[in-house]
Amino acid sequence: MTAQPMSTGTVGIVLVSHSAELAEGAAHLAAQVSGGTVTIIAAGGTDDGDLGTSAAKVEHGLTEAESGAGVVVLPDLGSAVLTVRAVLEDHPRPSHILLADAPFVEGAVAATVTAAAGGDIKAVAAAAEEARHVRKL
Amino acid sequence: MSASCEQGITLVGDLHARPAGALAVAAGRFASAVSVTAGGHTADAKSVLGVMGLGATSGQRVTVSAAGPDAREAVTALIAVLSEATRVAGLPSVTAKP
User: What is the CATH number of the domain that holds B53?
Assistant: First the structure.
């Protein structure tokens, strides 16, 4: 599920989607746009491969994406937030993780580009959330 | 010491997602405020979505402006990125990709 190799000191990204394909596709796109230097983990679908979210996949993603600089998590729909929050309740270092309230695709791209530029966890989460205000047309 | 600097370039390819990403990644490494102007619209060069939103196309004149301690270096670097990234993006084999 790892889209790109680990990059020490760069904020990692976890994309939590109800669809494995959607998470993988967004991860692939964000990696291409950002130059492939950021660790982006796709945590999509249930453990059985159905549509839904998986606490185990989220937990695994948080571990995989962490390289010391923290992790920004992007959920696709509201109920993905419930899964992420449940995982964070038991996480040993919740201060190293920020849940971004952002459009999924735009947020993933903006967050990853900011992480690639060396932004810290707050800057990466802010870049994702600002995506809400950028018009396409 | 703070300074401001500006330079223009004519794009040799469209400013698609990947060149916009390359530009924003490069811009984010500078302390200066950096902006890109095309077709009368200006975007924060550090915002990949903002840069993509410009919709700048091949043949269009684009201006990079920076203000801050490393303004000159930022403009030089971003002009180079625009030159290279849009050239690569402009190749027929990759124009349809992001």
Answer: 3.30.1340.10
- The answer to whether residue B85 sits within a structural domain is yes
Instruction: Give the range of the structural domain holding residue B29, as residue numbers without chain letter.
Output: 3-89
Concatenate the DSSP letters of all residues of A35-70 into one string: TS-S-EEEEES-TTSSSS--HHHHHHHHHHH-SSS-
Query: CB contact, 8 Å: A131 with chain B?
Result: yes
Q: Measuring CA to CA, which residue among A113, A130, A102, A11 is closest to residue A62? A: A11
Structure confidence at residue A111 (pLDDT) = 98
Look up the ipTM and state it.
0.87
Class of domain A12-133: alpha beta
B41 labelled catalytic: no
Distance from CA of A94 to the nearest CA of B (A): 26
pTM of the model: 0.90
C-alpha distances (whole Å) from B3 to each of B47, B68, B69, B77, B81 are 21, 5, 6, 16, 21
Give the best residue of B25, B34, B42, B47 to mutate against chain A (max A CB count within 10 A): B25
